[in-house]
Structures are given as C-alpha cells and as structure tokens.
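Today's session is about reading a structure prediction critically. Students often jump straight to the picture, but the first step is always the sequence itself: look for stretches that repeat, for charged clusters, for runs of hydrophobic residues. Only then move on to the predicted structure, which in these notes is written as discrete structure tokens rather than atom positions. Here is the chain we will use throughout the hour.
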Amino acid sequence: MLSLTTGLAPLVLAGLLGWTGAVKVFSRGTAQQAPKTALARMLRSSERATTVLRATGAGELLIAAGLLVVPANPVPGAAAAVLGAGFLGYLGYGRVVAPESSCGCSASEDTPITWRAFARAAVVLIGGATVAVAQDTWWPAVSERPAGALVLLAGAAAVLVALSADLDRWWLLPLRRTRLHVFGHPLLGTATDQVPVAASVELLENSLAWQAAAPVVRSALLDHWEDDGWRILQYSGVYGDRENARPVAVVFALDATAGRDTGDDPIVRVSYVDADSGEAVAVDELRAAPSRRILPMAG
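Below is the predicted structure for this chain, in token form.
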C-alpha cells in the first residue's frame, strides 16, 4: 500500500497543481478576484497581483507537466515542495496583514484564508518532498494495481475537494441543506412560497436587524429556504477584528408571509454560524441591540 501511495503521489500532485494553475492562467476570474486577495494588499496593486497570480499558475502548470512526464526525476518534486513552502509562508503573512481577504490560491475563491488553505499548501509541500525522495513513476502503479489505484485516487480527490473552499457550493452547501431537512432545525417545518424571495430580501434590508449585521455581511444572498413559516436567508461574512477575523455564514429568519403591505415590521432572527465548523457563534451585540424586533436564532 505504501509503494502504491508513493507511486501515485506524482499523479495526485500533478492533478492539484494542474487544476489550480490552469484556473489562474486561463480563467477570466483571475483579474476579477485579484483585488480581493491578500496578495493585492501586499503588493499595493491589483494589476501586479494579477500578474503574480498568472505567473504562479504558469509555474504550477510547468511543475504538473514535469510530475506527469518525468516523475522519477527529483526536480519536479523538489520544485513542488518549494512551491508548497512558499504558499505556507504567503498564507501565514496574508492571514496576519489581511485576514478578511482571500488567498487567491485557485483564483476563484473569495472566502477569507482558513485552515483549509494551509492544509492544501501542506499537501503540496509534503507531496512534493515525497515525490522527490521516492522518485517513483506512476504508470506502473496504475497498470499493475488498477483497482487499488482507482480507490486511492478517488480518496485523494475527495480530500482535495474538501480542502477547496471554492468548490463548497457544489457539495458542502447542498449537504448542509440536506442535513437541516433530514435531521431537523429549530425552525423546521413546511415550506411556503406566498411571498417572492426578492420581497423578503427588500424587507430584510430595510430592517434594523440588517443594519446591525451589515458590517459583517460580505456577499449578496447565497441561499434561501422556508421552514415552519419562516423564510431563511443566508449570506457569507467576516466576524471579528483584523487580528481575529473569522469567516461566518450570516443567517436571517423572518416571516415567510411578510411583505411591505402586511403592516408592522416583522420580527427578524439573526444567527452567525462559523463557516468551518458549522457551530453557532455567540454575538452579544445582537442580543443587546436596542430593539425587541431583533432576536438571535435558537440553537
């Protein structure tokens, strides 16, 4: 098993670097995301950040090609290890100087730097060092033990997907939504569609609850659903000061039947949920807000 793992390491590492490198080099989103990255803060220029991101992507593609073509040569593995070490240093510095910014690791994620970015960089460092030392080729491992290779590659792909924040919308958000419906939620019930979502958003954005949470919110509406007469509206955000910033999901709940023509302002419940752990974040400021119309969510 160990020999199979080391034999497939060049293939796994090439897949990771090939993907992130291709996105940086060829995606239009690179220039759009560059101003939101910690790199732009460091270089004091979005244009220079875009150039560095594309150059880094070209380097990743070159290393990936080397890992695929000459995996037994220690140079591609050593280059990957150096790249991973550089990523870790950049992430550490970026987490200090711009904790609310994204890392730009795949040029498509816009969430703040979290442990997952560090873990992925560590994978590049450790994987590169392993390849450089082992100097194994990957094609004998695939041809001689195809079933085991397929299982290991599938597991590695799952780990890399789990470490990529920009892929959350394809698996993590649907999974959390399914968990709420299967295992229950404090507001679980039957869905209603009496009021358009846009009307609920407009009502929310004119509420005191929105004014209190607006400094934390960092996105437009990401998700919505109805439970037990409540309409749940989910946004992403960053909570805390510059030194202790943490990514959170900002979740509002208001009467699903409420609209501008229903009279009194509806009660709005607010909850912050840690984006990494899924645990609720206690926000004393919301509980102390000067209105009985702003209530923290139960649970």
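Discussion point for the tutorial: Confidence is low (pLDDT under 50) at residues 185-193, 285-296.
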